[in-house]
Write a structure and sequence with these properties.
alpha/beta, Rossmann fold, 6-stranded parallel sheet, cell inner membrane, LPS_LOS_Heptosyltrfase, Glyco_trans_9
């Protein structure tokens, strides 16, 4: 059986879809699973040994260059790539118009959420088979239930993200115990105050854990450098690729992060994780996994440093 999964973005959504690959292989040992994903997140499906081929798509970049000839040449190459193979099943677990249009480019029986279940109801018009899945369950569970319905199996209660971090060279990282602090996110209203990060890092240092601050964009790296410079033993990480970030997270004693895809990656790697929410409700899209994880806060809430330290006690001690 050959299956194509369409889940293009964002980072957290892509990570939430990893258990689908594990589920399918549990029930169909000989399944060959390909995955269509945004080019910037292609490293995530490649972490799962059950993914055969990753088909990158560049919708985000193409939208910014619609008048460029190269864009349409790339679109043509992509359409040829996704239609090259015939699939027994093409599964859109995203439920958006853009993902449904991508699904239509593939060859095979196209499946997805019905109009009442999809994030964008119009997406259901582009599938051959539609399935009802509750919107009141976590995103990970929604993905798993959709795949189970499309392939006629019952998903195991135990979930498995199925990934492990690659071995990466981290010569810049001292051989000490550390906690990764993920301060960067896509919106300013999702940020946690810098003073809170400083206070948290001081408490962690007193317990024998150095703080490591990653950062991607220039403002994020500047924030990481600013925080690390004010804290003894703290480290501002260099610019890292997704696989390198996975390696950093996997070796951490714990991770504390705001509403960002990397917090979900930490949970997928089974690293104890505390996620901080200040602008969104974590009930349906918060960190979720089989290992230790905690979601703190919610809309218009600023979790205290004390609440984060309390949440970390089971894994770091008093």
């Amino acid at each position: 059986m050959r299956i194509l999964i369409v889940k293009t973005s964002s980072l957290g959504d892509v990570i939430h879809n990893l258990p689908v690959v594990s589920d399918i292989h549990q029930h169909f040992l000989d399944a060959i699973i390909d995955w269509c994903v945004e080019e910037s997140f292609a490293a995530i499906p490649r972490l799962h040994p059950g993914v055969n081929e990753v088909i990158p798509v560049a919708l985000r970049r193409w939208k910014k260059n619609l008048l460029c000839r190269q864009t349409w040449q790339e679109v043509k190459v992509f359409r040829q790539s996704i239609a090259r193979q015939h699939y027994d099943l093409v599964l859109d677990t995203q439920g958006l118009l853009k993902s449904a249009l991508i699904t239509r480019q593939a060859r095979g029986v196209k499946c997805g959420y019905d109009a009442n279940s999809a994030r964008e109801p119009i997406a259901a018009r582009f599938y051959d088979r539609c399935y009802a899945v509750s919107k009141t369950v976590h995103a990970v569970t929604r993905n798993r239930l959709l795949a189970a319905a499309a392939l006629s199996y019952v998903a195991d209660p135990e979930m498995n993200f199925g990934i492990s971090a690659p071995s990466t060279v981290t010569n810049w990282l001292p051989a000490t115990r550390y906690v990764v602090l993920l301060t960067a996110t896509s919106r300013n209203d999702k940020l946690w105050p810098e003073s809170h990060w400083q206070e948290l890092a001081k408490h962690l240092k007193a317990q024998g854990f150095n703080a490591v601050f990653p950062g991607g964009s220039k403002p994020e790296r500047e924030r990481a450098a600013r925080l690390a410079a004010a804290l003894p033993g703290a480290i501002a990480a260099p610019t890292l690729s997704l696989p390198e970030l996975a390696g950093l997270l996997a070796r951490a004693s714990a991770v504390v992060g705001v509403d960002t895809g990397l917090s979900h990656l930490a949970v997928a790697l089974n690293v104890p994780t505390v996620a901080i929410y200040t602008a969104t409700d974590p009930a349906l899209t918060g960190v979720f996994g089989s290992g230790f994880h905690r979601n703190l806060g919610g809309k218009a809430q600023i979790p205290s440093v004390h609440s984060v330290l309390e949440a970390l006690k089971p894994v770091l001690g008093a």
